[in-house]
Amino acid sequence: MKEIGLYIHIPFCKKKCLYCDFNSYIIHEEDNYIDSLCKEINAYLSANKYRFKTVFIGGGTPTVIKCKNIGKIMDLISSFIKKDGEITIECNPETLKENSINEYYKMGINRLSIGLQAKQKELLKTIGRIHSYEDFLSGYSMAREQGFENINVDLMFSLPNQTIKMWEETLLNVCSLEPTHISCYSLILEESTPLYKLVKSGELTIPDEDTDRNMYYLTEEILGYRGYKQYEISNYAKEGYECKHNLIYWKNEEYIGVGAGSHSRLDSKRFWNVRGVREYISKLDSNEDIIEGYEDICEKEDMWETIFLNLRLNEGLNIDDFYNRYGKGFMDIYEDVVVRLKSDGLLNVREKNITLTKRGKDLANEVFIKFSK
Ligand SMILES: C[S@@+](CC[C@H](N)C(=O)[O-])C[C@H]1O[C@@H](n2cnc3c(N)ncnc32)[C@H](O)[C@@H]1O
Ligand code: SF4
């Protein structure tokens, strides 16, 4: 029996945020989608080859759909989840209701990931969020009262019109609630989004690169001081609360993704489902293949992925683990690259571990690309 991660995609939201290019749509055909999703999941379960050490119900906004539909999915997969497996559901504060939180808890979901993004009302409005900080506070305290101990809060910086002071205020307020995990993402201006057009036309201004970096350093400083250990470029956790599901991605381990547009990595292959909700439903209805494409991952590519994903982690890449995985010495292959990046002040080499320096984190993508050649 293989122990892997399971990602379940719920591609629905109440309203699209102006910056978001995730595969999500205004909610439609919910019940049909859930039936199709269960059909896809069943095909994996009936092979009886997998046990799930983590489950991540993500989106979109999974909490926008009926609670009974989340229950349907959980009923289906429960007996395939390892004891003490981490089971996360992503939520938008506006859709967190007391009875549903209680239901999620009873279903066995043991981790909530709440998207707050920012504290300030005007900032939330500028980026098209549908909730207030007060909605978040009431959802957060209901979750705590219902017994959720492991809670992540998603935040974003470098937002239009956001000042360092505003970011500091958001961080300090969130820290004071003591969630177990905080994700802090620098805004990625995605070309397909309305926010991209607003910034390009000059209607909105985003902080410059120096301010972005200063916000990043401030995050490390404030969260570090409050007992959150940075364990990945954008992720901070109290001791022992690192996200096990995301660690599967960063350690380049195997997972299955189900639902519209989901990606999987299994048996040295990467494959992905059709993106559209209607196409996904109709293909499953007519027993057609929902896999839109796949790639074999050759050893060289696998090595590159392992390197750059591991380097995102604070613990970095472990040379012994690399040898155990590939039967080849890391330094035998990459010594030249490592020496160059080290002398440029981008990499640290400490005994068996290779990590990004502070400057290396700022220029992470440039470092990663050097290992691809
Ligand atoms: C898939 S979203 C789901 C969370 C939930 N739907 C919500 O928004 O409250 C996960 C997180 O990705 C981050 N995110 C989404 N778009 C982003 C972008 N363009 N740049 C940086 N972070 C982004 C946000 O912090 C968001 O909470
Ligand atoms: S950020 Fe979350 S709520 Fe907003 S559109 Fe994206 S998935 Fe939906």
Notes on the structure:
The protein has two domains: 2-250, TIM Barrel (Alpha-Beta Barrel), CATH 3.20.20.70; 316-370, no CATH class. Helices cover 42% and strands 24% of the residues. The chain contains 15 helices and 17 strands. It has helices spanning 30-46, 67-77, 98-107, 121-126, 133-145, 164-176, 194-200, 209-225, 244-250, 277-285, 299-312, 319-326, 330-343, 358-362, 364-370; strands at 2-10, 12-13, 25-26, 50-59, 81-91, 111-117, 150-157, 181-186, 229-232, 235-237, 255-258, 263-266, 269-273, 291-296, 317-318, 347-350, 353-356. A nine-stranded mixed sheet has the order 9-10-8-7-6-5-4-1-11, sandwiched between helices. The longest helix has 17 residues, at 30-46. It binds S-adenosylmethionine (SAM) and iron/sulfur cluster (SF4). S-adenosylmethionine is lined by residues 19-20, 22, 58-59, 61, 90, 92, 115, 117, 154, 156, 185, 187-188, 190.
| Structural classification | alpha/beta
Whole-number total of structural domains: 2
Q: How many runs of DSSP E, i.e. beta strands?
A: 17
- Report how far apart the termini are: 36 Å
By DSSP (H or I, 4+ residues per run), the number of helices equals: 15
